Amino acid sequence: MSIARTNARKAAVQALYQWQMTGQDLNEIEQQFLDEDWLKDAQKSYFNELFHGVPGNLAAIDQILSDFVDRPVDIIDPVERAILRIGAYELLYRLNMPYRVVINESINLAKCFGADGSHKYVNGILDKIAQQKRTVEINAKRTSQ
Predict the structure, then answer these.
(1) Phi and psi dihedrals of 37, rounded to 5?
(2) pTM for this prediction
(3) Which numeric CATH code is attached to 3-144?
């Protein structure tokens, strides 16, 4: 697990939050993050993938989230929604990223940016998505233990 990739996730949460709240153009937000040096210690290519990948696959991401959340996706706390969208994106589209890493990183993002206890909510939702979408990986892990 690289610090640069963790920092890319942190910046992506903040940028997605801004996008969700303002509807501002993605490229403008990205440029702002570059200009203000928020990505200095981050893996810029991974930030870019997450920040453009989530909105680019929003329908599929929000559909899978809606299968497991207890309320409409658009009324989930905006910070938790950004974190859940990043975690769901990674579970769906970054199959080379171990599901446990995705969930752990998302829990840490929720602890860093979310309300008290939001990490438990994020963990529960992403674990359910992993159980459905990463069954081959989960079963392989079980049989190797």
Answers:
(1) 65, 30
(2) 0.94
(3) 1.10.940.10
